[in-house]
Amino acid sequence: DAYEYLAAIGSRLADGCARAMHEHGIPGHAVDLGAKGCVSYRPEPLTNYRDFLEANTDLYEASYPWMINRGVFMTPGDEEQWTLSVQHTDVDIDRYVDAFAELCAALAG
């Protein structure tokens, strides 16, 4: 049951981040690994380490303090930005996605 729950909230978080980037024209995509995931600021999905090196780290570096200042603690490092637990609720996911959508809007504006 725990793994199914983590998969569901992980997908919900990644989908929300992907939707926010798409709506605001931010070049990136969300990586959903169930309990773990991240946003990769690169237009195409990562397929190898060279792709990872081409990600826009400036956007990640802007996102970290933005989220912290809105009460959302991200795992430090652009390769893994969230680690979920069964303690996280839909309210927690909404808080993350809302703060991330605000970041995307600010970057686009």
Which key phrases capture this entry?
mainly alpha; 3-stranded antiparallel β-sheet; 109 residues; 4 helices
In words, what does this structure look like?
- With 109 residues, this protein is mainly α.
- It has a three-stranded antiparallel sheet with strand order 1-2-3, with helices on one face.
- Strand 1 and strand 2 form a beta hairpin.
- Helix 1 packs parallel to helix 4.
- The longest helix is centred in the N-terminal third of the chain and has 23 residues.
- The termini are far apart.
Percentage of residues assigned to helices: 40-55%
Task: Name the overall outline.
Answer: globular
Strand order of the largest sheet: 1-2-3
Low-confidence stretches: none
- How much of the polypeptide forms β-strand, as a percent range? 5-15%
Give the helix/strand class. Answer: mainly alpha
How many beta strands in the DSSP annotation?
Answer: 3
Q: Please work out how many helical segments DSSP would assign.
A: 4
Distance between the termini: 41 Å
Biggest β-sheet strands, sense, barrel: 3 strands, antiparallel
If you average the pLDDT, what whole number results?
A: 93
Oligomer: single chain
Sequence of secondary-structure elements: HEEHHEH
Task: Report Rg.
Answer: 13 Å
Describe the structure concisely.
By secondary structure, this protein is mainly alpha-helical. The chain has 4 helices and 3 strands, in the order αββααβα. The protein has a 3-stranded antiparallel beta sheet with strand order 1-2-3, covered by helices on one side.
